[in-house]
Amino acid sequence: MSKLPGKIKSLRFILVGMLIVILAVLTGCSPKKAAVEEPTIHDSAAKVEWSEAVDPGDSKMKLISGNVRYVSGKLKAKDLSATKRKDLSENGQKPFAIVLTCSDSRVSPELILDQGLGDLFVIRTAGNVVDPIAIGSIEYAVEHLHTPLIMVLGHEQCGAVKAAIEAGEGKVEGNLGAIVEKIRPSVEKAKAAGATGVDLPEKATEENVKAVVKELEEKSPIIRDALGQGTLQIIGAKYDLDEGRYSSIR
Ligand SMILES: [Zn+2]
């Protein structure tokens, strides 16, 4: 009987180890791999941390573990001290991931991915669409900061996607029209795939994320080169507003 607690302890250690290995395998795949990782809520996963990301796989794991912490309510302590600011100011930034997401106030990347000052390079536009300025911002982080991962993050109940659906065939005037025009093809694609009713905006959101990932690959030689060299990966994901978790849609 006296040996039993030790056995249970080592069994638990093995199980935790296996889970970490499985997570690492699921998230460390090639840039072209389709529909992969989905954050899994588990205490041991929340403990997976690295002092510094060195490759796209590490960055993906940091995002996953950060979102797991957020969902479970076990947020890490953030260093917002004067010392940290001084360090970032003197030594420069080295964000481990670029996050392109919607401007929606419910989708703040540093909060939902539980990351600190200097961790994420963030670009936000309504509907997470890109133009030359947004692509240029991403290129800056890829080329000059050597950030190894781009996450394109759409979200549930996106107002920009709904606006594109409501616009139908009609023209939307002004600057908002530019956003609607960007999303419209994804709405058409979702409709062609048979999406209707409440499913339509959700399916269109997923199509929009895929379209943005494709646009980044096609329109940026800098991104394309980094992808080719294996120093960069792009993932597409969708955030669930009430559950607080994201899932891969690519
Ligand atoms: Zn949105």
What's the topology here?
Elements lengths: L3 H24 L15 H4 L9 H17 L9 H10 L5 E5 L7 H4 L7 E5 L7 H13 L4 E7 L3 H9 L6 H19 L6 H21 L1 H9 L3 E7 L6 E3 L2
Helix pairs in contact: 7-8, 8-9, 9-10
Total beta strands: 5
Return the average pLDDT rounded to an integer. Answer: 85
Helix content: 40-55%
Number of domains: 1
Query: Secondary-structure element sequence?
Result: HHHHEHEHEHHHHEE
CATH topology, by name, is Beta-carbonic Anhydrase, Chain A
N-to-C CA distance: 50 Å
Small-molecule binders:
zinc ion
Overall CATH class: Alpha Beta
Bin the strand percentage.
Answer: 5-15%
Count of DSSP helices? 10
User: Which structural class should the secondary elements be placed in?
Assistant: alpha/beta
* Largest sheet: number of strands, sense, barrel closure: 5 strands, mixed
Backbone shape: globular
Instruction: List unreliable stretches of 5+ residues.
Output: 1-51
Q: Mind telling me which CATH architecture this is?
A: 3-Layer(aba) Sandwich
CATH superfamily: Carbonic anhydrase
The strand line-up of the biggest sheet is: 2-1-3-4-5
Rg result: 20 Å
Short description, anyone?
The protein has 250 residues and is of the alpha/beta class.
Can you tag this structure with a few keywords?
single chain, 250 residues, Beta-carbonic Anhydrase, Chain A, 5-stranded mixed beta sheet, disordered N terminus, binds zinc ion
